Amino acid sequence: MPSCWCKTPDGWAVNLDGTDASAEFSLPRIELHSGPSGWTCVCHRRNGTFVKLPLGIGASAEPAKHAAAEAMLALGTGYDAQLLALLTRPSA
Q: Tens digit of pLDDT for each residue in 26-58?
């Protein structure tokens, strides 16, 4: 099953193993949280570590999703195909 963004209570998430991010937490995972300072991306790696990146205020979630996928790709997760697919297809 392809990875896709799922709505969460405070933003969006995607499990790169293809599981439903709204139903379960699975690694690696990207989360986007919306708050007063804008979007924050949390890149959860397969080894249990994570990187938190402030993305700032954007007009919509779409630029934040793109930036988050690019950030996770740069971290080198071994899920390049899934991340590239997120970057090239429209998200929900």
A: 999 999 999 888 999 999 999 999 999 998 887
β-strands 11-15, 29-35 pairing: antiparallel
Average pLDDT of 65-91? 84
Strand order in the sheet with 38-44: 6-8, 11-15, 29-35, 38-44, 50-56
C-alpha span between 31 and 5 (Å, rounded):
9
The Cβ of residue 15 has, within 10 Å, a number of other Cβ atoms equal to: 25
Q: What would the two tokens of residue 70 be?
A: 């690019």
**Residues 6+ away with beta carbon under 8 Å from 20:** 6
Prediction pTM value: 0.85
What is d(CA 52, CA 64) in angstroms, rounded to the nearest whole number? 13
Answer left, alpha or beta for residue 7, where phi above 0 means left and psi between -120 and 50 means alpha: beta
